[in-house]
Amino acid sequence: MDDILKDSPDDNTPIDVDSYIDNLEREVSGNNEQHSEQQVAPPENPPVNAEPPTATAETPPITQTVTKKSLTAKELIFILKKDFFKVVDFFKKDNLYMDVIIRLFAAYFLVSTYNLFKIHQKFSVLDFPRSVHIGKFALLIAGAFVVLTFIKLLFRWAKINIKTDGYVLAVAIMGYGLKTVYRLNNFYYAVGVSIVVGICIIFLLHNGYFKEFCNMKTIKASIIVGIVVVVVTIFVASICVYRYLTYATSCFDFGIFCQMYYNMIHTLLPDTTCERNELLSHFAIHTSPIYYLLLPVYAIFPDPKTLLISQAVIVVSGVIPLWFIAKNFKFSNGVASALCIAYVFSPALLCSTFFDFHENKFLVPLLLWLLWAIDTNHVKLMYMFSVLCLMVKEDAFIYVVCVALYVITSGKTYYNKKKQKTKSLILHGIIIMIISLAYFFTITKLMEKFGRGVMEYRYSNLMMEPDKGLVNVVKTVLLDPAIAISEAFEEEKFTFFLQMTLPLFFLPFMTKKVSHLFLIIPFLLVNLMSDYAYQTQIGYQYVCGVTSMLIYVSLLNLSEMGVSPKKYFATFCMTTSIVIGFMYGTGRLSYYDSYKINIDRVQRMDEMIDLVPDDASVDATTYFVPQLSQRKVVYNMISPKEKQTENTDFAVLKVGGGEENFVDEEIAYLKENGYEYYNGYDDLMYLFAKTEYLDEHPELRDKQLNEPDRVRNNEEILAEKLLKEAAAQ
């Protein structure tokens, strides 16, 4: 190549490639004309009768053949180079070369997803790649590439200016990731997938793809978010209902709230008998007046499933204030939509919603409404939502106080229309903080006097003097802050920390402002510093209020960044939340599968439950309490040795499940205390009824069955077990 280029016009000066090639082409054309054998030209005015010349020895014969000189290597290279640059320019136009690469990857992930559905071996072992035929795999990728190219051409022909390849790759890689996450169901694998998917989509976003999503109008963004909200709400509510239908909910805590609402629609009092196996107001355990907001709905639909469906709606409804907050921060519709979708798929919110019904779920939308009211200077609404948050639970004051500290330290202002001047929100923040602290101390004193007190034992790891109450926790932390740090960042809490913060890409901590850090304090106090195991698991209600605070402070910190970081962070939050939330959500599909597989078993249990009269008092095994909760008296069955409750009209006893000793002891207790076997199944449950109650309702005798062998021979079975236990000791 160097030897060829030495013949260029001037080795010491730059070459204009296009001009040089044009000159070269003209030179080649001229040389061809000169070196070609030309046809003899006829005379200008030949005689009419002139004969054509004849060939002689001196005159060569006339020929019609024209030959050209072959191109030299130098000439050929420059011509090919010109054609190559034309091809490159063609692909550079509209990033066609990027589209081809993206299309190839899209075809690859589409075929890989197809293999996941076709091949049933675990993809995490070598048997999976051994099952893939390389030739067929390549052929399918080529076919998919051709189809995607045809789709691209159709869009061009229809003059629809959409970069389809980017959308197909995003869907393909997300589909592949979700399928593998569903099959493996491992949190850390889901983290890896979410990072890969997030990087891929951010790369596409950086290279000009998804412009339609980034620049969409408000109505389109609202429709997209609305569809996601409806789908996720229906899914979560359905899973919760199937969990209830399969008898997977228990007395603690769902059975408690089911009976509480039954009593509330009849007496307006939040009374229960199954929470402590005595008639007791639930407010003696947790003071939650917020429950009354849902009472009209339950009065119209008096069914335990109403609570589960309502809970899903309540949690997901937080997307409404979140959207308003995002728009108030001047986020684009694309960024706002991505953040709202991230909220809907939040692993913490999804997992906590799957578990029963709790007052903490009200905190999710209420805290976001409170923070929206502060950002938009709605002072009256700020007070209203502060009060509503305090009504959720006695410990909700933590969230309101931290919000008040944020208001005080951030220097927020508002415009007073009456006085027509700008005023500071600091005074309002101080007032709200005082109200919150006063409410907490008042409620705790009342609960200590009339109820069962505050559950201080959850912070026993930070109490030097347990009898001094929660104030002692503050004293411990002030005297030894290292102990608080050691408790908050224990090794076993690391996974929980990632579950809470990774879907937000650690945005809550990306700030230089002290005022923002006050909004993170509940995460430290409520979850990380406690040694109560359930408070450091996303599957329980204790993460609800904290999640709202973390999501808001993430948006707050994001609002202070540039346009591109906003897009990239929002995209990563959305993809990570979708992947991890999908893993936890599909993991709960087992309740639906259990219902389908065990439909006969479920129907038989329903049949037994229906045999218990509505006015009868019941003592039931914990997993039967929710189904039997719509009555005045229902107790959670405990060991006969610990019973302190009065004898009920019916006893419903679960058979199996690894509690055989308990079953035999309970049968012996019931037979000794005037109960008769009423009905049941040996592999499911037994119903016992008080003889006096059956005598008072003789019509119930029609459905009474004979005792099964296990009940009839209970004394012998129990005696044999006791002998075996004594011999083992």
Give me the secondary-structure category: mainly alpha
Radius of gyration: 39 Å
Main beta sheet: 5 strands, mixed
β-sheet strand percentage: under 5%
Strand order of the biggest β-sheet: 6-5-7-9-8
Count of individual beta strands: 9
In whole angstroms, the N-to-C terminal distance is 94 Å
As an assembly, this protein is single chain
Specify the number of helices. 33
Question: What proportion of the residues is helical, as a percent range?
Answer: 55-70%
Poorly predicted residue ranges: 1-15, 32-50, 54-60, 62-68
Mean pLDDT equals 88
**Envelope shape:** globular
Q: What is shown here, in short?
A:
With 729 residues, the protein is mostly helical. The chain is built from 33 helices and nine strands. Helix 17 runs parallel beside helix 26 (544-558), helix 21 (471-479) crosses helix 22 (481-488) and helix 30 (660-672) crosses helix 33.
Write structural notes for this entry.
With 729 residues, this protein is mainly alpha-helical. It has a 5-stranded mixed β-sheet. A two-stranded antiparallel sheet has the order 1-2. Strands 3-4 form a two-stranded antiparallel sheet. The N and C termini lie far apart (94 Å). The model is unreliable at 1-15, 32-50, 54-60 and 62-68 (pLDDT under 50).
Highlighted features:
five-stranded mixed β-sheet, 33 helices, mainly alpha, 5% strand, two-stranded antiparallel ribbon, 729 residues
Task: Lay out the secondary structure.
Blueprint: H1 2-5, H2 17-35, H3 73-92, H4 96-118, H5 127-130, H6 134-157, H7 164-184, H8 187-206, H9 211-214, H10 218-245, H11 251-267, E1 271-272, E2 280-281, H12 295-300, H13 304-316, H14 319-328, H15 333-344, H16 347-354, H17 363-375, H18 379-390, H19 397-410, E3 413-416, E4 421-424, H20 426-450, H21 471-479, H22 481-488, H23 494-501, H24 514-517, H25 521-528, H26 544-558, H27 563-587, H28 589-597, H29 599-610, E5 618-620, E6 634-636, E7 650-654, H30 660-672, E8 675-681, E9 685-690, H31 691-696, H32 709-712, H33 714-728
Parallel strand pairs: 5-6, 5-7
Antiparallel strand pairs: 1-2, 3-4, 7-9, 8-9
